[in-house]
Amino acid sequence: MKTVLIVEDEAELRSEMGVLLEFEGYKILEANDGAEALSLIRKTPPDAILSDVVMPVMDGFDLLDTLQQTPTTQHIPFIFISARATEQDIEDGLKKGARAYYTKPLDIEQFLVELEAMFD
Amino acid sequence: MAHIDLPDQVYQQLQAYAHEQALSPEACIIQLLQQATSANQTEDPDYIAPSDDLSYFESLMETQSAYVVRTDIEGRYTYVNERFYRDYKWLYGSRESVIGADSMKTIDPIDHTLTAQIVMRCFAQPNQPIPVQLRKTTPTGIPSYTLWEFTALADSNGEVQEFQCIGIDINQQVQAEHQLQQKEQTLAISLKAARAGVWIWDIVTEEVTWDETMAAHHGIRLEDFSNNYAGWAENVHPDDLATTEAHLQQALETQAPFDTQFRIVRPDGSIRWLMGQGIALYDPDTNKPLRMIGVNIDITERKRMEKLELERTRLALELDKNQQLSDERSKMISIMSHELRTPIAIVSTSSDILLRYADRLSPEDHTQRLKGMKQQIRRLEYILDQVALINKADAGFMICNPTNTHLGTFIENITSSLEDITSQEHHLQTHFTTQRNYAVMDATLMHHALSNLITNAVKYSPDGGTIHLKVMDASEGITFAVQDEGMGIPEADLKTLFAPFARGGNVGTIHGTGLGLAIVNRIVQEHNGHVQVNSQLGHGSIFSITIPKLIASEVY
Q1: Record: contact A13-B348, CB cut-off 8 A
Q2: Which helix (H) or strand (E) holds B272?
Q3: With an 8 Å Cβ cutoff, is B351 touching chain A?
Q4: Residues of B in contact with A53 (CB under 8 A)
Q5: How many CB atoms lie within 10 A of CB A24?
């Protein structure tokens, strides 16, 4: 069973995303911001990270930077899911090294297919 | 005229001698000079020989500041005085070598022809001094001016024997004159370059004198100007005459320079702008103005440029404003899109769960999810309402309907509607210090404004705390204050706090459209009131809405 970490400061969204992915057979970890995510990852490295961009304490970009600088975490697939939806936002996120950048709301069918493919 | 400086007693002596000889003192002096300085003895028996008692005059000539020279009829020097020798030492060397030298050498070649002409006249009119201004040769080559009097001295037969010349150095005067001429020329050029017309107004006779440029300004020929004050006044634009005359009068009364701008109407109907400056001359005894002298410069073009510049500035400002509006709009779209996407994402995810895994959900899970969706939809509605409201206010369509409102009921309605958000963490406390039971206001709008302030107080107090809602009497009306113990507002953000979409620099990821306070401000403005903010970073903020008392007749 693959473990997916959801980093999202909007509690309702985080919990609903978790419920949905659990139904799809993933093991879920949740974090409210980048800093919380980092300490979780150190304890239990997930198989993939789904992260918001705008968050308190540590935002998604800083989280990705930190993970990429650490040899043990740099290989973990990192995916942005954000309400920031301009082409510029998407380009910035991918340049940072994210595997994918999804805008809210998600097209769930496509998202699940692509997430699955990331583990092959 | 050249003249010889003589001490008074010498002059008296001379007069006496002249009387004796039946000559004018000037003719007499020349004669005496001739005798005193004579180098060649003439054979003419009638020629007055130098006498011992005239040796005094010889020494007198030597001390003169004027040039005194004598030449033979060929123009060769027979005598030069000390002053002359001093000025030509550079040319001749020793004084002896001057005698017999050609006198033309001391005259600038430019004036040789003139000199020859004067000599001819002297021959024609012997014994009569003939004045002439000549340039002398100088070591520097820079012309230097001398005023000479040449006299051809003739014997009793009218035969010219020699020349007597007295000259004075007038170089300084000539130079000064030249400088003056140059200054006048410079002034004329300046006036022409500035296209300044010169006018003189004789205040006593009302006569006005113009130069050509003045006439050109007025689009007439100089000879067609009536040369009086009325003639000028009738050319001034009727709208400007009174002001211009007032300026003139004021300048005369205060003895200050006159400086004004006015329009004139040309005979062809065209309008020109003139700048007028002048100064008056006053009677030193009565202090009454006698004359005013001034200039007029046509500033029509400058005025046109000024107007263009103003227009350009106005357009630039408008463009700026449009740019601002456009920036504001893109900011709004970006914020709106971001703010709307989150609740939509929640609704979308919940509905995906309901659709995909309905069979695996308990009835409670099902209902809870639907409730959650409903709540997110309300959140969306709230955002859209805010946008609609601010748009309405911007377009001037916010309808304020003040009615007599019972304050107790009004506050109770607010607190009960906010029960959901004011939990244990955020305790809402009301303080009623007003003696009034009623206030005239639009209860719906004011409800919205106060709810907004209280919601903000909750939102920006992430660590909880007490929120105070105060209703107080103010000198001009009634004040509603909302005080929190939250994060406070940075000073830099206070200025733009009420602008649409403005959000504090320290809000971090707390959601918001930046529309709430803009709406509060509009609502308060509709009540002719004002909002005041007192905030201390890290300690909390107080927002106070004060609305004036409205009288019954204003209630509709």
Answers
A1: no
A2: strand B271-282
A3: no
A4: none
A5: 15
**Is B345 within 8 Å of chain A by CB?**
yes
Nearest neighbour of A20 by CB, restricted to B338, B342, B353? B353
Closest CA to B153 of B55, B39, B30, B51: B30
Cβ contacts of B369 on chain A, cutoff 8 Å: 16
Q: What is the pLDDT of residue A15?
A: 95
Q: In angstroms, what CA-CA distances link A120 with A5, A116, A117?
A: 18, 7, 5
Specify the DSSP element, H or E, that contains B200. Answer: strand B196-202
Strands B160-169 and B67-72: antiparallel
For residue B223, what are its two tokens?
């000879």
**Coil, helix or strand for B294?**
strand
Q: Assess B94–A contact: CB distance below 8 Å, yes or no.
A: no
Query: Is B372 an 8 Å CB contact of chain A?
Result: yes
Residue with tokens 């600038």: B108
Residues of chain A positioned with their CB less than 8 A from the CB of B377 = none
Q: CA of B505, closest CA in chain A: separation in Å?
A: 13
Binned at pLDDT 50, 70 and 90, residue B555 comes out as: very low
Write down the pLDDT at residue B53. Answer: 52
User: Least CA distance to B330: which residue of chain A?
Assistant: A86
pTM value is 0.49
- The H or E element containing residue B487 is none
**A81: Cβ contacts below 8 Å, ≥ 6 apart:** A8, A50, A51, A52, A102, A103, A104, A106
DSSP run (H or E) holding B86 = helix B82-92
Name chain B contacts of A9, Cβ cutoff 8 Å. Answer: 509
Nearest residue of chain B to residue A21 (CA atoms): B353
pLDDT level of residue B233 (50, 70, 90 thresholds): very high
Helices assigned H by DSSP within B404-501: 407-417, 443-459, 491-494
What's the one-letter identity of residue B36?
A
Suggest the residue from A16, A32, A55, A81 to mutate for an interface test with chain B (most B CBs closer than 10 A).
A16
CA distance A53 to chain B (A): 10
Closest in A9, A83, A106 to B338, CB measured: A83
Q: What is the pLDDT of residue B491?
A: 81
What does the pLDDT look like over B145-200, one tens digit per residue? Answer: 999 999 999 988 888 999 999 998 888 888 888 888 888 787 777 777 777 888 99
Residues in B touching A19 (Cβ below 8 Å): 353
What residues of chain A lie within 8 A of the CB of B334, using their CB?
A: 86
Burial per residue of B470-491, b for 16 or more beta-carbon CB atoms within 10 angstroms, e otherwise: bbeebeebbbbbbbbbbbbbee
Inter-residue contact B289 to B282 (CB < 8 Å): yes
Question: Can you give the pLDDT of all 120 residues of chain A as single tens digits?
Answer: 899 999 998 889 999 999 999 999 999 999 999 999 999 999 999 999 999 998 878 889 999 999 999 998 999 999 999 988 888 889 999 999 999 999 999 999 999 999 998 887
More confident residue, B31 or B236: B236
Q: What are phi and psi of B496, to 5 degrees?
A: -100, 10
pLDDT tens digit sequence for B419-462 = 877 766 788 888 988 888 888 899 888 998 999 899 888 888 87
Give the contacts of B60 (CB within 8 A, at least 6 positions apart): B6, B10, B36
Residue B69, CA distances (Å) to B106, B119, B307, B425, B445 in order: 12, 14, 73, 123, 114
The DSSP annotation for B403-424 comes to EEEEHHHHHHHHHHHTTTTS-S
